[in-house]
Write a structure and sequence with these properties.
Length: 474
């Protein structure tokens, strides 16, 4: 493998491939696996728990064991890619992800599964920012990046929807281990294709790794994500939740002090002088909160209120997925005309409208009559929000900081997802309990709680639209 130490001026050129669109296909495929594995286990949890003898508390850790290292190591993963080469770190992440997926599928007890899920998350934290940085190098801002991000956003967004569908189909037809084994052949395909398509690597930074900064940012983000993950188990005011949140904030404060005094910081705060990067990451954080909370609550709504089984629940989200893909296909020329900030603002306003429409669905909603309209609008808006938000968050970033910018985007989405899930699920549970105490039957109470969660997600989308609107101002 040839590694080239590149300057900001020539990094984009040396990182190119003659088959860059085909290379993008495999980069997006790897990102699809990363997003897929954050959601595919949800429907398989009951079967998985029965097979390995895991109780309810341990089942939640099947998700948490993946999310914590993923969210916590993204910033470090992005900087490692800048320091040692984006292609190299990407391939290391893909290899680790394949090996961990195989181990997860072969697990004979809970400890083995949780360890494998943790390695999956850590590997995803290496490959995700490296993959987006490679996309930025293959497609400069004025040379096809909008179209490339359209494909990227469609595939990544599809991963969240496909997780529900594939989780139900694979678990029902083959068994829970299949949700992990499916990653192996797809990952091997990526592992073989990328070295052939990208025959040169680019090192954009030779700075020494800031270990104190890396340790504090990793532990700080892990503590914050863990705090919001624990909300679902013990509530916002639990000593465990508050203790983890306080620890995370202290560690992030310490990280800030370390970075301000470091000669070669892990995160150069000058990147936030870029208005687009700052506002883009804020919108991505809020989008992540709305989307993760939406898919979690929507799955519960379909099963607990409408009475659908796991497989049918997945099938009902196909219109949303198709709308997302269609929107990603037509978005690049729109974004070229309006700009990423305006496109993002409009997409978020449409997303909020779709969520409000979904919240107004009757308790005994008929899928054909009441749900395709709002879900199609939500899917189309998500396509625009994913793509335009990512484009805004990496706008004007130098090649030397491409890994850092990619890590920031992914970290914002992960933290936002943890916060959104905790807040929206707590909102749904609180209102459902209140309606139940007021005399409503169980199904009506649940439906009311889920509607409140959709309205909460709409509020997050409106706040993100407001922030995006500021990015359009000179």
């Amino acid at each position: 493998m040839t590694t080239i130490v590149a300057t900001a001026a020539d990094a984009a050129t040396t990182g190119r491939s003659r088959n860059r669109w085909l290379a993008l296909t495999f980069l997006a495929l790897a990102q699809f696996l990363v997003v897929l594995d954050a959601s595919i286990v949800n429907i398989a949890l009951p079967s998985l728990g029965a097979g390995l003898g895991l109780d309810h508390n341990l089942l939640t850790w099947v998700i948490t064991a993946y999310v914590l290292p993923f969210g916590g190591l993204l910033m470090l993963g992005g900087r490692l890619a800048d320091r040692y080469g984006h292609r190299r770190i990407f391939l290391v992440g893909v290899f680790g992800f394949i090996a961990a997926s195989l181990a997860a599928g072969l697990s004979v007890n809970g400890a083995m599964l949780l360890a494998a899920r943790a390695v999956q998350g850590a590997s995803a934290a290496l490959l995700a920012p490296a993959a987006l940085a490679l996309l930025m190098q293959l497609f400069p801002a004025t040379d096809g990046r909008a179209k490339a991000l359209g494909i990227w956003g469609a595939v990544a967004g599809l991963g969240s929807v496909a997780g529900v569908l594939l989780g139900g189909v694979l678990t029902a037809s083959i068994g829970w281990s299949a949700i992990f084994f499916i990653n192996v052949p797809v990952g091997l395909l990526v592992l073989v294709a990328i070295p052939a398509l990208l025959n040169r690597d680019v090192v954009t930074s030779r700075a020494q790794l800031d270990l104190p900064g890396a340790i504090t940012i990793t532990l700080g983000v892990v503590a914050l994500v863990a705090a919001f993950s624990m909300v679902l188990e013990v509530g916002f005011l639990s000593p465990v939740t508050l203790g983890l949140a306080a620890t995370g904030l202290v560690l992030l404060g310490l990280f800030t002090l370390i970075e301000l005094r470091s000669a070669q910081p892990l995160v150069s705060f000058s990147i936030f002088a870029n208005r687009a990067v700052t506002l883009g990451n804020l919108t991505v954080l809020l989008i992540g909160g709305a989307v993760v909370g939406l898919f979690f609550v929507l799955s519960l709504h379909m099963q607990n209120v409408l009475g659908y089984d796991a497989m049918l629940t997945g099938i009902t989200q196909v219109p949303l997925a198709l709308a997302l893909i269609a929107a990603a296909g037509v978005l690049p020329p729109v974004m070229a005309k309006l700009g990423s900030a305006r496109t993002l603002t409009v997409s978020l306003l449409i997303l909020a409208a779709g969520l409000v429409w979904l919240a107004l669905a009757p308790v005994g909603a008929d899928f054909v009559l009441h749900l395709p309209g709002p879900t199609i609008i939500i899917g189309a808006a998500l396509g625009g929000a994913f793509i335009a938000g990512t484009e805004l968050a990496v706008q004007g970033v130098s090649e030397a900081d491409s890994g850092l910018a990619s890590g920031l985007v992914n970290t914002s989405q992960q933290i936002g997802g943890a916060i959104g899930l905790a807040v929206l699920f707590t909102l749904a549970t609180t209102l459902s309990n209140g309606l139940g105490a007021a005399g409503a039957d169980a199904v009506t109470a649940l439906a009311g709680g889920y509607s409140a969660a959709y309205l909460g997600a709409a509020g997050l989308a409106l706040l993100a639209a407001l922030i995006a609107a500021f990015a359009t101002r000179k």
